[in-house]
Design goal:
heterodimer; A: alpha/beta; 2-enoyl-CoA Hydratase, Chain A, domain 1; eight-stranded mixed sheet; B: mainly beta; OB fold (Dihydrolipoamide Acetyltransferase, E2P); four-stranded antiparallel sheet; about 0% helix; about 55% strand; Biotin/lipoyl-binding carrier protein (chain B); Biotin_lipoyl (chain B); Biotin_BS (chain B)
């Protein structure tokens, strides 16, 4: 038949309509029954405009013998979108088509690890937003290719280099398994709904490999990955909550590492005194306090968003704004492990510091750390190696760091809170206490022989302790300029804001990829 | 009112149990105090209610997320 505009445009229209039907009404209904949106509903709900790419790409559904059953739209939907007022590359698996399997059956991958949507983010230097729901690779892919292929033939360069170029955000609703789980963790921020699961291999595979029966939520549910493993940063109540969380995180980040992080509203006065801090921090040093309340008192109103609130909980990390300037906030949490840095807390700090450094967000660090975690569990999890990696991440951070000494600062862990090779600006509250070791216990360890040899060991120990306590007066350190400035906690906001404002000259003239991106660590 | 179980935020030792089974408590009341890394960590009621069960005793070692108190 000869070409006519009418006929061709009708065909285009028909094919586009067909793409909207996804994997069919039955599979869509199943997703809805399980409380999930389809990929197209996710896109509709989260964007104000969406220009699709690869709309007509198809998947030929065949049975086990190779007999064609149906032609379905391809299992990935992607395009250019307006998301939270920002231009982004956006895509996600369509679980109603072959469980959201990788689009390796197409002439060009649409997205997933290295496909069109990743290329779009890379080439245009715009953030990548992903809706992750897929089973990863499957045996059927082998049948399509006609031979068993080595996964190592597939380049991983693109998804990895994106991490040092543009914000990469992902949310999981449903199941993310194998390659899709891998894609989910190659992100700067990840969130999963509480009903979702993520694993390298699901329960059937675990049963085969290890002979154990395990419930899928116990194996890789939202509570596990955001509360124990830390493979995913945040938990969401539902998909709308997950979308909101990604939109919030993006609001602190620039379009790419060559541009400035977007300054927000400057409506909270810089000189607002945080009177409540004197109530939040108890005078009784053995009492912990609500770290989030302390942070909220200092940063711009309603600007604090916690990243990883449920894992590595002896350390709090999150984004905030100060006089509109996006910053990364880190604080030790004395309510968990006394604030000691264990392996998980160190991992959390490393991940967060690297993200801040990559996107040029200054870091504000509230210090109250009794040291690296000690004990059999801590040694087994190699706390010392993870801890020193945290030290390295801060030493390598190419952003201004303002350190606030809240209370304790003991041991090597303190090296992970400021960088003396750069400005090393430390603001101390008069509640600060620091040293190599806390006096209690430290005296016992350091002067054991002398104490044992004394006529009255108890009295002698007390004498030494008193002398050491006298030396640990924070005002004495300030006299020797061993801490840069002693401030009233209530003026913290103003002092930090003034320094952050000044630091922007440095930030503006240091844009671009980090000099020391993702270097090997011990 | 729904029941609620309060769990430990940190591995710790149970230092002092302040509430007793059957006590009427208000949101924010301190029910017990844990001790970890020389810090006294208050365990507070997360809603108004009656203490149905206290699941640990003074001196017990508790793990992160271990159940401590049941309120109804």
């Amino acid at each position: 038949m000869s070409f006519t505009w009418k006929g061709a445009l009708q065909e285009l229209q028909d094919r586009r309509s067909r793409a909207r039907e996804l994997g069919g009404a039955r599979r869509i209904a199943r997703a809805h029954e399980q409380g999930r949106y389809t990929i197209r509903e996710r896109i509709e709900r989260s964007t104000t405009s969406f220009t699709e790419i690869g709309e007509l790409a198809c998947y030929e559904d065949v049975d086990a013998t190779g007999q064609s059953l149906d032609t379905l739209p391809s299992s990935y939907v992607c395009g250019l979108a307006e998301f939270a007022g920002r231009t982004v590359a956006l895509g996600g698996e369509d679980f109603t088509v072959r469980g959201g399997a990788p689009t390796s059956y197409l002439g060009r991958m649409k997205g997933g690890l290295g496909g069109f949507v990743e290329d779009l983010a890379h080439e245009y230097r715009i953030p990548l937003v992903m809706f992750l729901e897929g089973i990863g690779g499957d045996v059927a892919a082998q049948a399509e290719k006609g031979y068993a292929y080595l996964a190592s033939s597939v380049s991983m360069q693109r998804p990895i280099e994106l991490l040092s170029q543009v914000p990469v955000l992902g949310m999981i609703s449903g199941a993310a398994v194998g390659a899709t789980a891998g894609r989910a963790v190659l992100t700067h921020f990840s969130v999963m709904t509480k009903d979702s699961v993520l694993f390298a291999g699901g329960p059937p595979l675990v049963r085969r490999a290890l002979g154990i029966d395990v419930d899928k939520h116990e194996l890789g549910g939202g509570a596990l990955h955001t509360g124990v493993s830390g493979a995913i940063d945040n938990l969401a109540e539902d998909e709308d909550d997950a979308i909101r969380q990604m939109q919030t995180v993006l609001s602190y980040l620039p379009q790419n590492v060559w541009e400035m992080p977007p300054r927000g509203e400057r409506s909270d006065p810089v000189d607002r005194r945080a009177e409540e801090l004197l109530d939040i921090i108890p005078e009784e040093r053995r009492r912990p306090y609500r770290v989030d309340k302390m942070i909220r008192a200092v940063v711009d109103n309603d600007s604090f968003f916690q990243v990883g609130p449920k894992w590595g909980r002896s350390l709090v990390t999150g984004f905030a704004r100060m006089d509109g300037i996006p910053v990364g906030v880190i604080a030790n949490n004395p309510g968990v492990l006394g604030g000691a840095i264990d392996a998980k807390a160190a991992e959390k700090q490393i991940r967060f510091v690297d993200t801040c450094s990559t996107f040029h967000l200054p870091i504000v660090y509230f210090v109250d750390v009794p040291g690296f975690m000690v004990g059999p569990d801590a040694e087994r999890s190699s706390t010392i190696r993870w801890g020193m990696r945290a030290v390295q991440s801060l030493a390598e951070a190419e952003v201004p760091v303002v350190t606030v000494q809240v209370r304790k600062a003991f041991g090597m862990a303190v090296n992970a809170t400021s960088n003396p090779d750069r400005l090393g600006l430390r603001l101390a509250w008069p509640s600060g206490e620091w040293g190599d070791l806390p006096v209690e216990g430290g005296v016992e360890a350091g002067f054991r022989r002398e104490i044992e040899a004394a006529e009255d060991p108890v009295a002698y120990r007390r004498l030494v302790e008193e002398r050491m306590l006298g030396l640990s007066d924070p005002f004495k350190t300030a006299e020797h300029f061993g801490v840069e400035q002693m401030i009233d906690p209530r003026e913290t906001r103003e002092v930090v804001c003034r320094f952050l404002e000044a630091s922007l000259h440095r930030v503006r003239t240091s844009l671009g990829p980090s000099q020391r991106q993702w270097r090997p660590r011990p | 009112m729904s029941s609620c179980v309060i769990t430990a935020d940190t591995p710790a030792t149970v230092w002092k149990v302040l509430a007793g089974e059957g006590d009427t408590v208000s949101d924010g009341d301190t029910l017990m105090i844990l001790e970890a890394m020389k810090m006294e960590i208050p365990v507070e009621a997360e809603q108004d209610g009656v203490v149905a069960r206290i699941l640990v005793a003074e001196g017990d070692l508790v793990e992160m997320d271990q159940r401590l108190v049941e309120l109804v």
